[in-house]
Amino acid sequence: MSASINANVLKNFIVKTIGADKLTQAQAQKYDIDGNKYVEANKDENAYLELDEILSDTDLYEQFATMYVDEQDKEKETADAEREKEEASKVQDKGESKA
């Protein structure tokens, strides 16, 4: 499922989610990323992971892809609920105008 997510789309999602193009270990903990996975992905051993390091690590790619899919599902559910609410309002308005 997540393998079909375009890398550029995922990059944009990661930047939007973490608010930067680098992931620190504190941020990784916030998103429940295993500390060992973070260390494994940190090839240049600096204080953060760059986007390319995240995307090249299968586990991190998969985790962010799952987060992306979950967010898309939530947005779809919210949009569907709004649409249903609008339709119900229209039906109610029609009913009131006939009365």
Short description:
The longest helix has 41 residues, at 58-98.
Q: Topology, please?
A:
Layout: H1 7-18, E1 22-24, H2 25-30, H3 35-41, E2 48-50, H4 51-56, H5 58-98
Antiparallel strand pairs: 1-2
Identify the notable features of this structure and list them briefly.
single chain; 99 residues; mainly alpha; two-stranded antiparallel ribbon; 5 helices; 2 strands; rod-shaped
Describe what you observe in this structure:
The chain has helices at 7-18, 25-30, 35-41, 51-56, 58-98, and strands spanning 22-24, 48-50. It is mainly α and 99 residues long. The protein has a two-stranded antiparallel ribbon. The chain is rod-shaped and about 70 Å long. The chain starts with 6 loop residues before the first helix and ends with a helix. The mean pLDDT is 88.
Query: What integer is the average pLDDT?
Result: 88
Q: Please state the CA-atom Rg, rounded to the nearest Å.
A: 20 Å
What is the string of SSEs from the N terminus onward?
HEHHEHH
Strand order of the largest sheet: 1-2
Strand content: 5-15%
Q: Kindly report how far apart the N and C termini lie.
A: 51 Å
Helix content: over 70%
Largest sheet: 2 strands, antiparallel
Question: How many strands?
Answer: 2
Look at the helices and sheets and give the structural class. mainly alpha
Query: Could you name the ranges where pLDDT drops below 50 across 5 or more consecutive residues?
Result: none
Number of helices: 5
C-alpha geometry: rod-shaped
